[in-house]
Amino acid sequence: MTAFSIPGLSTNDTEKAVAILQKRLSAYNDLHLTLKHVHWNVVGKSFIAVHEMIDPQVELVRGYADAVAERIAAMGASPRGRAGDVVADRDWDDYSLLRDTTDAHLAALNKVYDGLIASSRGAIAALGDLDPVSEDLLIGQTGELEKFQWFVRAHLEDESGAIAGQSEHTETGAAAQAR
């Protein structure tokens, strides 16, 4: 329920846009926690490269969560950022790897980004007719997420262009194939 709506947006469209943005907020909160978890638990020959590559992404994604939450608030709604809200909004599995190799974590993260980017693109499409301002916000964020997935894939790519774990459909399957 919104207290007010943005001028030019109906209450109904505002509430639809807020619901879409709330799912992105929960996804971003989950992602920055997952990235920090990987940062703490990655080991192996490329440890320092991966360890240091992840922290800037954590900060970027935290900023995305903040921007989305502020958009929700500007639309007259209350952004929900508690741990229980993330769990309630989840339509994905919790990240399951603990201490593991850089290749295993990156292959699993590649799957995380597959799902996150696909759902972000769905949100962008849904917002297109509702609220182009929110759509624009997500377009910029998704472009940066796609760039970071490219960084992850570059670590996993071999000389023939194959990406370790790419043919798998789950994080654990991708991690096992990449080990």
From TrEMBL:
<dbReference type="GO" id="GO:0016722">
    <property type="term" value="F:oxidoreductase activity, acting on metal ions"/>
</dbReference>
<dbReference type="Pfam" id="PF00210">
    <property type="entry name" value="Ferritin"/>
</dbReference>
<dbReference type="InterPro" id="IPR009078">
    <property type="entry name" value="Ferritin-like_SF"/>
</dbReference>
<dbReference type="GO" id="GO:0003677">
    <property type="term" value="F:DNA binding"/>
</dbReference>
<dbReference type="InterPro" id="IPR008331">
    <property type="entry name" value="Ferritin_DPS_dom"/>
</dbReference>
<dbReference type="InterPro" id="IPR002177">
    <property type="entry name" value="DPS_DNA-bd"/>
</dbReference>
<feature type="domain" description="Ferritin/DPS">
    <location>
        <begin position="19"/>
        <end position="158"/>
    </location>
</feature>
<keyword id="KW-0238">DNA-binding</keyword>
<dbReference type="InterPro" id="IPR023188">
    <property type="entry name" value="DPS_DNA-bd_CS"/>
</dbReference>
<comment type="similarity">
    <text>Belongs to the Dps family.</text>
</comment>
<dbReference type="GO" id="GO:0008199">
    <property type="term" value="F:ferric iron binding"/>
</dbReference>
<dbReference type="InterPro" id="IPR012347">
    <property type="entry name" value="Ferritin-like"/>
</dbReference>
<protein>
    <submittedName>
        <fullName>DNA-binding protein Dps</fullName>
    </submittedName>
</protein>
